[in-house]
Amino acid sequence: MNITTISSREFHQAVSAAKRAANQGPVLITEGARPTHVLMSFEDYQKLTMQRRSIADALAMPDISGIEFDPPQAIINAKPAGLV
User: Fold this and answer.
1) Which residues contact 6 (CB under 8 A, 6 or more apart)?
2) Residue 22 is assigned to a structural domain of this protein
3) Could you tell me which residues are beta bridge partners of residue 38?
């Protein structure tokens, strides 16, 4: 993993370069000599936090209409209740 360190000023002047560097590993953003922020790819962030979407979150997605979902029809054979 490649760790890049840039100053806050450099970050503001070259945001695109910092984003490209974040694809290779975390980017430490400093103020003075002290790290204050970390920039990383969203994929790395998800791995780090191990976030998983629930089915409710997935169904609440605004672009859900583009996902095909055709579950098989359930067949339920009901039997009359008998006396024991």
Assistant:
1) 14, 18, 21, 27, 28, 29, 30
2) yes
3) 28
Residue 39 is encoded by which pair of tokens?
């920039």
Q: Divide the 84 residues of the chain into consecutive groups of 10 and give the mean pLDDT of each group.
A: 92 96 95 94 85 70 71 83 68
Q: Look at the chain and report how many structural domains it folds into.
A: 1
At 66, give phi and psi (nearest 5°): -85, -5
**Sequence-distant (≥ 6) Cβ neighbours of residue 14 within 8 angstroms:** 6
Say if pTM beats, i.e. exceeds, 0.85.
no
Q: β-pairing, 27-31 with 34-39?
A: antiparallel
CATH code of 20's domain:
3.40.1620.10
- Residue 47 placed within a domain: yes
